Amino acid sequence: FVHDADLLLAEGYSWEPFPKILVTSRAQLDEERVNPSDASVLALVGEKCFALALPQFTFRQLEKLAALVEQTFLLPTDQRD
Description:
By secondary structure, the chain is α/β, with parallel strands linked by helices. Helix content is about 20%, strand content about 15%. It contains two helices and three strands. It has helices spanning about 30-35, 60-75, and strands at about 20-25, 40-45, 55. A three-stranded parallel sheet has the order 1-2-3, covered by helices on one side. Helix 1 links the parallel strand 1 (about 20-25) and strand 2. The chain is globular and about 40 Å long.
């Protein structure tokens, strides 16, 4: 379906082993429900911060999230931090 794409974002597929960004829409979620046991979770986006060893962003920090995605997937390996 997609040809010559550098990056493909898709909603869903949480059961797949591909890298993913967990988006929470409710601030009431507790840490136990949000804590990703899946090592493929790259970052967390939501209005509540959790004590997790993951990059976390609010919905007003999407430029920083985009920079993380670019750094992780689009830059050549020798240019990554």
